[in-house]
Design a protein that fits this description.
Blueprint lengths: L3 E2 L8 H13 L12 E2 H4 L17 E3 L8 E3 L2 E3 L7 E3 L3 H12 L4 H8 L3 H4 L3 H18 L6 H19 L2
Amino acid sequence: MDGQRASLSLGFPDVQAMPEALADLDAVTVPAENRGGLRWFEKRWSHYAPAARDLAALAGPTLLHTDLNPGILVAGGRASLMGWGMASIGAGYADPADLVINLIAAGHHPRDAEAAVAGLPAWAGTAPATLDGYARLIASTWLHAFWSIRHPWTDATVAAAQRWALHRRSTL
């Protein structure tokens, strides 16, 4: 596919293209008869979650990319989600939340990162307490999962996830 890597840095137009791509994905619900080959998002995280009770909020019928990262291609001003090796079925807010973390890692304030996805139905329809729980879960989960992986992207996203969780806590 032709295109270039997305830049989620402040001031780049790709920042607006990413929520549009997620809006298209948000509209996809995987019919029950076609879910056999996809992993359930909550089961994928069950080895890392500090409390099993946190996993129920990850369940849902939505097709999730779950591997948003700077390697996503942008073609013609429109973002295309590439690399579907981690595709899962789960709560629709998970991909927008992961975009929030990527935006924070690229230099956005958590408030502005959340504003970028605020118009997505899956985000807007999610209770703030659920988003708070996901922020806590992902901050601790990614710290555990990426503890031994030394890479600038993993370091930046773990720090961004922790920053987002602390931001969510400060808004209580």
